[in-house]
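User: Okay, second chain of the day. Same drill as before: sequence in, structure tokens out.
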Amino acid sequence: MQVSAYLKLSVGVALATIVLKTGAWWWTDSVSLAADALESLVNLAGAMFALAMVTIAARPPDAEHPYGHHKAEYFSSGFEGVLIIAAGVGIIWAASQRLLDPQPVDALGIGIALAVISSGLNGALGWAMLRKSREHQSMALEANARHMFTDVWTSAGVVAGLIGVMLTGWLWLDPVLAILVALNILREGVQLVRQSSDGLMDQALDTEAMQAVQTVLDDFAHQTIRFDHIVTRNAGQRRYIDLHMHMPSSWDLGRAATVRGAVEQALMKAVPGLRASIQLLPMDVEAHFDDPKGLL
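Assistant: Same drill. Structure tokens below.
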């Protein structure tokens, strides 16, 4: 199943959980269940925007975007993070009003049952989406999956709190629980916005990918070949690496190009989604990026 198919399924699940959680809130008049329902509404908006951005990211390179449109996924992550933060602030405001004026909650058994069903849907799909996001290096899919897991933990906390209300009769526990839910939502939103900004600023490859790169280079490096000036960056599902490969000046161009091609192919095989670009230089020549005269 493709990334876009998972996001379409996410939209459907979000609609189903909104119905379930809104019903739970309507039956119980619980502010914590209302907060849970609001987060699912944010899930729906995030999934729809993620689907749009993934569609854009899949477009091939063109004259105005020669490196492709892969970074569009980072906008999805940032947008979803902002929505989550807005939802968290709204929940805190509503729960604070209820904390000042506690209200009774009704039919908690029905509300808890509906919350558990919706959590099961979110948990199953979120787990599948997270695995798929790692396979395809999709930031949009990962953000949506992590939001689903946040929704699952939110619902679990709400259910535990409502059971506490049933056992103790403490009405203030419901709004307090909603505030705790909101704080967790805010934490997740801030994390998504930070990840989005890191991606838009050309963050380097992660440690695991860099270890794979270094392993390949070590296999090719010997007394006549060395590598330096290694620069990497992430761009959605695409990854890039640029480096210099030094070799004896006595080698002819055909031999040098053959070795370079082998290194590039090995790198791209070792790291999914990688595009490698290698500049050939004689062993006794250094290139300095900050030198306006170029090679010295």
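Helices lie at 3-28, 31-57, 72-100, 108-136, 139-168, 173-200, 207-220, 253-270.

User: Thanks, on to the next one.
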